[in-house]
Amino acid sequence: MIAITDSISLDEDELQWEFIRASGPGGQNVNKLSSAVQLRFDVLHSPSLPEGVRRRLMQLAGRRMTQAGILVIDARRYRTQEANRQDALQRLSALIRKASAQPKTRKATHPSAAARAARLEEKRRHSVIKRYRRPPAEWE
Fold first, then answer.
1. What is the pTM of this model?
2. What's the whole-number mean pLDDT along residues 55-60?
3. Which terminal CB of the chain, N or C, has fewer other CB atoms within 10 Å?
4. Under DSSP, is residue 5 helix (H, G, I), strand (E, B) or coil?
């Protein structure tokens, strides 16, 4: 079990790892070893995620989410496969943690009487400035 938050933990069987060849640093090893990691996590069918977290995670994932509801995380930042595995797992955990945070509900507010008065006074001042920019009426 992989602990994400106090209430959410993922079973390791829910994660699918695929190892591919990476471009970038690695010298001659880059042509021989599959050090890049693709982590796949089925968000739609995961029993570990509550419904609200699932919905927010699908929105947060954006282009990393496939049509089938699978989250794909590509990790090729490091030279070793193990470091890339850890990176992919940390990125998945961070994404789920961010999705598990309940967004604050917005409370509708009204501007105060002082704020309304200040706005109207500023409008009056601005209109006077613009009025002085116009040519005199006798020129028209």
1. 0.62
2. 83
3. C
4. coil
